[in-house]
Amino acid sequence: MGQGIAQVVAVSGFQVHLYDVSEEQLGRAKANIDKGLGKLVAKEKISESDKRLRWSAFLARQHSIL
Fold first, then answer.
1. Under 8 Å CB-to-CB from 56, ≥6 apart: which residues?
2. Where in this chain does the record put each 3-hydroxyacyl-CoA dehydrogenase NAD binding domain (predicted)?
3. How confident is the model at residue 52 (pLDDT cuts 50, 70, 90)?
């Protein structure tokens, strides 16, 4: 699943799992999604507390494929 799609789905309140063969790629995805959520906070689309709650839930559900 692309990181943009993952962000939209997570912000909508759904459980999201990110899979990748590389921890490095997952790290980039996390950074990009965090940046995207920050933009939503700046545009007042979501609150800072929504960003933290959604991000925490999102991070807790990430896995990598070995």
1. none
2. 1-51
3. low
Q: At what angle do helices 48-60 and 3-11 cross, to 10 degrees?
A: 120
Where b means 16+ CB within 10 Å and e means fewer, 8-45 reads: eebbeeeebebebeeeeebeebbeebeebbeebeeeee
How many other CB atoms are there within 10 angstroms of residue 63's CB atom?
Answer: 10
pLDDT > 90: what percent of the chain?
Answer: 9
Tally Cβ neighbours within 10 Å of residue 64. Answer: 13
Contacts 24+ apart (CB under 8 A), 22-28: 22/64, 23/64, 26/62, 26/64
Stated pTM of the model: 0.70
Domains of the chain, by residue range, sit at: 3-60
